[in-house]
Amino acid sequence: MSDTRSPLSGTRPAPLDRPPVVRLHALALLSLGAGLLALPFAVLMSGARPPSQGFAWDFSVGLGFGALALAALQFALTGRLRWLTHPFGADIVYLAHRYLSWAALALMLAHFGIFYIWHQQALGVLNPLQADWELTAGRLSLACFGLLVVTAQFRKPLRLRYEHWRLLHIALAIIAIAAAVAHVLGVGRFTAEPGKRALWLGVTLGWVLVLAWTRLAVPWWQARNPWRVVANRDEGGGVHTLELAPEGQGLTRWKPGQFAWLAIDRSPFSLKEHPFTISTAPERGPNLAFSIKALGDDTDRLIRVQPGARAYVDGPYGAFSVDREAEAAGLVMIAGGVGITPILSNLHALQSRGDRRRVVLIYANGSEEDIAFRAELEAMRDHLDLELVLVLEDPPEGWDGATGRIDGALLARHLPPESRDWPHMLCGPAPMTAAAGRALRKLGVPAHRIDSEIFELA
Predict the structure, then answer these.
(1) How is the beta sheet containing 402-403 ordered, strand by strand?
(2) Predicted structure pTM score
């Protein structure tokens, strides 16, 4: 019997994944964020205001309030709020959190520096045992926030284990925000009126609620809906796939290419969870598969987990999905190493849906032994219109595939001219995706048609 399905059969995204809706959602969130950052200034400038102490004083105070508003916003960006991450992808939101944290720290340092240079008398003594408590609170907030940002940026050079760093990160964030609010309320120059005090108390309540949602409500839900490891498969290339079966409610609103936070043989309250791509498609659920390579920290333990282990899952998150590309004529996918896992999930979805659009997959590894899922990818060519290009940096003798690194010449050889307006989905080590992105743009691929999944969130 001939297959009479449309090439796009079964690939239409849900209404919230259609590009116009996603763009409107993103615009609404950006507008909301700008409004929240501007709100403190609008409230503080209303009603009775204290006499001006000169430009430098007023400018420094403005920087301080801006820094606090920006710092408080970080709790929402890291709060795993799906309505916030949906249009951008959780990886992009986390990247924005990283950059905005540096911006908040810069504003805090400028706030303190201006007072230190032009109004040093207002700072009083720097010794915390002798200084007024509200000024000490401000300095404590600055020190904690600085330590928070630096340890996040340089976690690996500092050799901080991921789970230890997460505990430190959360503790420093709570102390920094609490001390900053105490500083503002204690100084009281712009917060003497009840309405203005209510503003900062509302800010405090807001971040407490987000913290309670992320660290209490979500783990509580996970504890009531555990999973069980039912298989551990060696996929080659040092990658192991853990298959999980739900013992409570399975994953909802799950799309191919998304990821989830995974904890195995650990309490969901323990802060010892890690983000991993779900390497299979929703059509193959309700079981989940996580394909993990031992790259340090807890991954060495996870690849050795045996069937029967209890697991907890928080997800799904992310927007690296073919569900957003239902109208595309074809797809280009470029992966490096274990970055193949979200690509594999999307390929599984296309296969399950009978989607016959052309797909060009360029998959780079160091050696032939590093290639994960090779047999599975090659078998997919019987069910998909898939061109599989395996690239080895260190090929064995007799290798007849592509060699070297992914560059403009390699891409020009393997990508058809009509693919320039197709979606290009990239995932792998940051240097590889950056180089591939530059090469694609030189070939004429528009920047908005290149989607790079952030390989690491921390």
Answers:
(1) 402-403, 385-392, 358-365, 330-336, 424-427, 450-453
(2) 0.83
